[in-house]
Amino acid sequence: MDSRDWDDRYAASELMWGTAPNQWVVRELTGRTPGHALDLAAGEGRNAIWLAARGWEVTGLDFSAVALERAERLTADLPDEVADRLTWRHGDALALEAPAAGYDLVLVAYLQLPAGDRRTALRRAAGALAPGGTLLVVGHDLSNLTEGVGGPQDPAVLFTPEDVLADLADLGLRTVRAERVHRTVGGEPGHKGGGGGGVAVDALVRLERPAD
After folding, report:
1. How far is CA 66 from the centre of its chain?
2. C-alpha angle 166-212-131 in degrees, rounded to nearest 5
3. Are 206 and 170 in contact (CB under 8 A)?
4. 115 Cβ contact list (under 8 Å, min separation 6)
5. Distance CA 148, CA 141 (A)
6. Which of 60, 62, 147, 173 could crosslink 48 through cysteines, CB 3.0-4.6 Å?
7. SS3 string of the chain?
8. Distance (Å, rounded) from C-alpha 2 to C-alpha 185?
9. pTM: predicted TM-score of the whole model, two decimal places
10. Which of the pair, 119 or 197, is modelled with greater confidence?
11. Strands laid side by side in the 86-90 sheet
């Protein structure tokens, strides 16, 4: 899907992913010392807004202008001290150029791309980390096709924790967590591809760049 496809998809529904943050983002990042964060493929901003409310200075990047318009609309309703911590940028994860100082956190949540593009995006995300920074990758696991519900049904855009580790194997990052996790359908309607109950299988990888 190109940016126009995503614009059309976002335009077809109001707040496709809802406003609640992803549960794995909450689990992994609650209590972390705030710093500068990049939410790569931020969509309508639910995770970036959650981070900003906890003191992070967040840049949300997405290549859908419609999604970013939604994010800006949500930002306008936030308290000033939270809204001032949010910056929205229109751009492509495959062409990410990070500031020299890097980010203390880079979040890549449900960026489902073919393997070659995924590798490019993840390596750019890893390259954007400051010393001591955290890279958190969450997405629909390949096993969700047969063991879970919802999500993309094209195996070419699904991945495993092992795929993420292989993509980044030579970059000197330390693995904190690499696992499949199970998410009850219903809390995040946009990711389920329809109604009905069940459990979705996600891939979760958390890595850290060693401090200098």
Report:
1. 17
2. 55
3. no
4. 156, 159, 163
5. 9
6. 60
7. CCHHHHHHHHHCCCCCCCCCCCHHHHHHHCCCCCCEEEEECCCCCHHHHHHHHCCCEEEEEECCHHHHHHHHHHHHCCCHHHHCCEEEEECCHHHCCCCCCCEEEEEEECCCCCHHHHHHHHHHHHHCEEEEEEEEEEEEECCHHHHCCCCCCCHHHCECHHHHHHHCCCCCCEEEEEEEEEEECCCCHHHCCCCCCCEEEEEEEEEECCCC
8. 27
9. 0.88
10. 119
11. 86-90, 57-62, 36-40, 103-109, 129-140, 199-208, 174-184
Residues shown for the chain:
212
In the predicted structure, residue 40 carries a pLDDT above the cut 60 = yes
Residue in this structure with the two tokens 């809802």, named with its chain if needed: 18
Between CA 133 and CA 2 the distance in angstroms is 30
Block residue for tokens 């904190």: 176
Token digits of residue 22: 């992803």
